[in-house]
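hey so i finaly got around to running the thing on Monocopper oxidase-like protein SKU5 from Prunus avium. pasting the sequence first so u can double check i didnt mess up the copy paste, my clipboard has been acting weird all day
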Amino acid sequence: MASTGYHRRLIACAILIAAALVAQANAIHIYLEWNVTLDSTIKPVSQDQPVIAINGLFPGPLINTTTNDFVHVNVFNNMDEPLLFTWNGIQQRLNSWQDGVSGTNCPIQPGTNWTYVFQTKDQIGSFFYFPSINFHKAAGGFGPIRVINRNVIAVPFPKPEAEFDLLIGDWFYDSYKSTRGMMITHLGAYYTFPDIILMNGKGPLGNPMSKAYESFNVTQGKTYRLRISNVGNALSFNFRIQNHQMVLVETEGSYTDQITLDSLDVHVGQSYSVLVTANQNAADYYMVASSKLVNTSDFTSLVGIGVLHYSNSVSQVSGPLPDGPDPFDLDFSVNQAKSIRWNLTAGAARPNPQGTFNVSNVTLSQTFILQSSIADLYDQIPRYVVNNVSYSTPETPLKLADYYVNGTGVYQLDAFPVRSVNANAAYEVSVVTGIHKGWIEIVLKNNLNAMDSWHLDGFGFYVVGFGIGDWTAKSRDTYNLYDPVVRSTVQVYPGGWSAVYAFLDNPGMWNLRSQLLKHWYLGQELYVRVHDPDPNPAKERPPPENLLLCG
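ok and heres what it spat out for the 3d tokens, dont ask me to read them lol
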């Protein structure tokens, strides 16, 4: 009997290996060459300001891939500052060397180039990329990523007539260097506010600062997929289309239960797919993205406006903008967030249903309770803190230090308090242990007045709970453990909390951060070191041959 069991395990392993080899054989290699520049001619809002363009484009070019493809991006940095790109939501399976954040990569120096090589391993969905250091995201450099299902995997909705990428985000009139320079002041760090909302790099329809507005051309009676991402720096928005409903189908690599919505809240760093059917009279209709927690009657430029144009329309948009929820109505937003659930029967990157993997009976190995707030550090320098610790970026990327010297002289593992708040605010190179192949619960508490948004590189996490007020152990009784959606960015409401579960099966050095740019830039982040001592490259990739060294 024992021998029979052993042989069965061998056969099962052989099948898995064969499947992996077949998947790799079917994958293609995509080669991209990016010329990254500071472009002073684009002027999306008629201001003299440098915009980060890729091959002359703002937003940058689409990365269009299929599950398991290999993407080679040769980045030529023709800017005047070091540069990195990160691939928001791409999990970089076994390969944090390609993650493109300060803790994993040396920056690409001005006048040089470097090639990222990453695989969209076991993923589908809507994502985006952006520059990750030096406050560059405030100048653009972002673009869409699509990861398409393999042909053998059924998509849980009919093929749309076409797809549109819609990158929406807040924008500053000042140059990113000017805005960055203000971060050393209390006014800049705590009170700087964006000026306008862009849709695909274009200003709102009717705004005197706008050079152009975004418009999508549709055919009456057809259905379209909109891949919507919040690429902004600070503000959540509510998206809606005049006289049209939307069917939510996907978020950040997970197919969702299909719910019909009049409007959708999208928080900083998040991505969604919705289906929109052009089932109204032939005309033009407003597309609106109104900022949350902002009195948009006073700040009208913080309402992004574009057009859904029917191809046989002979009339322009008319009437008032479509009403959305009160921007200060947190109950609406929380209830909508709780209604976004995982489609348990659909396959995604693999043919087995998403619901094959669930959290109803998991045993937690770790719990992190992370509180975000502000603090003035030495000489009254304004910072954002997690558990009263503000992240200090070392000259040597953590991943290099970990690989070559086991972190010695660069960081002290587990010095960061994962379940308590330091009595005194401090700088620290915050690196904590994530137990390999253990389940972790991360509770994110927001002590700020702003909507926050947290992201974990390397994983999709299960969003099990939201709440307003304090989190306690009793809050677990409110968790949704049946069909929580899996994504990589979760909003945390002012004075509230969000809770996620993650299975740490992806060895590497992974960034856990606020997606709000000034929060991240001023220290609201840490790194989770998930270590597998097995040197087998099938467990974690070795450094790439073109590895950059620094520090």
